[in-house]
Amino acid sequence: MRGTAADVLARADALGAISEEDGRLTRRLATPALARAGDLVSGWMEDAGLVVRRDAIGNVIGRTGDADVPPLVLGSHLDTVPDAGRYDGALGVLLAIAVVDRLAAPPPIPLEVVAFADEEGVRFGVPYLGSAAYSGRFEPEWLDLVDADGITLRVAIERAGADPALLLEVLEPGLACYVEAHIEQGPVLEREGLPVGVVSAIAGQTRAALTIIGRPGHAGISPMSGRHDALAAASELVLAVERFARESEGLVATVGSLTVSPGASNVIPGEAHLSLDVRHADDGALGQAVAGLRHTATRIATARSVELDWSILRATPAVELAPELRLRLASAVLAEGHEARSLASGAGHDAVILSGVCPAAMLFVRCAGGVSHDPRESVAEADVAVALDVLERFVVGEGRTGPAPTGSSRL
Amino acid sequence: MRGTAADVLARADALGAISEEDGRLTRRLATPALARAGDLVSGWMEDAGLVVRRDAIGNVIGRTGDADVPPLVLGSHLDTVPDAGRYDGALGVLLAIAVVDRLAAPPPIPLEVVAFADEEGVRFGVPYLGSAAYSGRFEPEWLDLVDADGITLRVAIERAGADPALLLEVLEPGLACYVEAHIEQGPVLEREGLPVGVVSAIAGQTRAALTIIGRPGHAGISPMSGRHDALAAASELVLAVERFARESEGLVATVGSLTVSPGASNVIPGEAHLSLDVRHADDGALGQAVAGLRHTATRIATARSVELDWSILRATPAVELAPELRLRLASAVLAEGHEARSLASGAGHDAVILSGVCPAAMLFVRCAGGVSHDPRESVAEADVAVALDVLERFVVGEGRTGPAPTGSSRL
Which among B120, B229, B251 has CB closest to A264? Predict the structure, then answer.
C-alpha cells in the first residue's frame, strides 16, 4: 500500500536491483543505470500526483502546488558508491514520495521532491554535482572533469541525452526550506535505542587528488638503491595519512582510491594516483590537517626524489543546519512520542549545498550497526514508519502559520 | 636493405607502432595488436625464405631446412609490457630474421626462427606462456588464468581464432639448441664499452599474487580506530618488501601492480590486490627471501585483522646457460674482434624455458643507460651490426662439424 513503511522498503529493494554491474549495486552519475532508476522514481512521483521534470544533470524533480510560491523541498540522492547498500540516498527520496502519497488533502504548502543525480561524486571525483546543479551553483569548469575512462562530464551528459550548457543557466531557486531524511551511517541512534535523530551540523570535508611521478624500470634489473618507485612513495603517504588522522582528535582521513601505472608485475611503478578525503567538524582543525598532510606528502616526495602533484578537488566547510528548522523538526519527533536526539553528521549530504540557498535540516534514521556504503546496509521497518510519521507531521505543520511547537529536546 | 642493422632498426620502429593503445606501446598476449605484429613478422620471415606457421598461443615460427633434423632455434618474444620500448623482445626476433636474410647459401643446418607470443606475462600474470607452449611445457590449468577483465586464457585464445586444446597436445620438440639475442636491460656493457656480451646465467624469480581483504566503510563516519583498511595494510606490505630487498644483498623485490576495491574516494578500501616479483641469482637466497616476505605479510595482516591470501603464480629457479654453447657464442664474439664479456641476467627470458628442452645461450646487446620497459629504450646501430655479425658467424659455425674454436674469454 502506497505511503507505508513496507512500501518504502519494497521500493528500496526495487531501486537496489538497478545497477551498472551484475551482482552488486553501483549507480554513478550519467549512467544508463541511474537513468533507469530515475524512470522508476519518476513514475512513483507521478503516482503521488507530482508534476515531474528532469534537469540536464539528471535530477528528477516532482512538484505540486502553486508554482509562484517557494516550495518546501524534500529529497536526497539516487547515485551510489560502488558495491553500495540500498538505503544511502534512496531512503530519503522514497520517504519524501511516501509523505506525498500520504497527504489526504493537497499539501498545505507547495512541495518539491528531488532525487539528486550525484551526491557521492564517485564518477568525477567531485561530490554534490546534482544538488549544486539544482541550486544554481554548478561551476562551468566541472564540465571538463574526467572520469576513469577519460570521458568528460560534458560528454557524459551529452551521451545521456541532455544539454550540458543548460546547467550554467540555472538561477538560484526560490525555496522555502529543504528537509532531507537519510540513514545515520553511524552508531549513535542504535546505541541509544532511538529510531530517528535531528542533525545539528555536517562535518567539513576536503577532497584532493594526488599524483606521484617516479621512474618506471625493469623489476629484475634495477638495483633497489637507485629506484624511484611511485607506489612505494604512495604507500608511505597512505600510512602517513592514517597515522596523522589517528593522532588527531575528531579527524578522519582516507585514501580510498589508488591506481598504479604501468601496473605490470615486472615493472617498477612509474606513477601512482591517489584520492584523499579529510573530514573534521571544525573548519580550523580541518584546514590545519590538510596543510599538515600536504607538508608530509611533500617531505615524502622530496626524500624519494619523486614528483608530487596535489590538487584540491573540493573543500566544503562544516555546515550548521538551520536552528529554527531543526527545532520544528525536533518538535515533530517529540510529538510522535520519541526523544529528539540531536547529532552531528560525519558524512556529507546534499543538505550541505541546499543550506547555501535556503534553511536546511536533516532527519537521521537508525541503521543496523551504523553500516553504510556496503551491501549490508539495513533499516528496520518500524524506524521507517517513525520517520514517515515525523516527516508527515512536519510537512503538515509547515502549512500552519502559528508558532513552532516547543518541547524539551536536546537540540 | 634486408639483413642490415639499419633494416633491423627500421623494422623495430615499424613493430613499435603496433600497439593496443594510442600513443604508447603495449602488446599483450592474444590481443589484436599482437596478432598484427605477428602478421608483419610472418611476412618478413617469408621474405627471408622461411616456411611460416603459427601455433595456438600465437607464436610465429619460421622454418627452413630438413624437417627431420633438429634445428638451431633463434628467437625472442613479440609481447611487451605496458608503455614499453621497441627493442625488448622484438630485437631478438628481428636479428634472427636478419641473420637468415644474410645467409648467401641455404643455412648449414636447419634453422627455426621463433617470435614468442608471451614472455612478459602481463595479461595473465604468468610469464613465458609462449615459450612454454612451444616447448611442450604448457600446463592445462593455465587455461583458467583470468586477466584484469575477467577473461580466461582459454576464451582469449578462442577469441583470437585458435583452439586452446591444441596447446595440450604439443610434445617436447627435438631441438639442436636455442640462441636468443636481447637488449641487456642493465648497465654493464655500457659501462665497459662493449657492444655485446654472453649471458652466463638467468636469475631465479618468484611471482606471487597477494590479496588483502579488510572491511569497507564510509570514509566520513568510521572512526580511525575501528578500521580494517585493506590499502593501509597493502601499503605496509609494499614498504616492507622494499625494506627487505634493500637489506638483502643481490635481492630485488617489486610490487608492480596494486588495485583497490571498491576504489571510491569516500569509501575505506575493502580489498587490495598486489603483485610481488622477487629475484635472486642464487636459488637458496631466493627461497629464503620469499619465505621471509611471506612471514612479514602474515604478521602485517594479523596485526591489522585483515585476511591475507598469498599464492605463488610461478617460481622459476636460477638457470645456468649451456657452457659449451656459451663458449661457441663467445668464440664468435672474439672472432669479430670484441672482448667476450660474460654477464648474468637479472631479467627472465624465454631461454629459461628453452634451456629445459635443449642447450640454450643468449647474446646481450648494449642498450642506452640500461633502460628497458620504458619508451626510452634505445640501441645503437653499430651495436646491432656487431650482434648481426656475431650471430651470422655463430650460425655458419654451427654448420661445421669441427671442434668449437677456442680463445681467451672471461666465460
Answer: B120
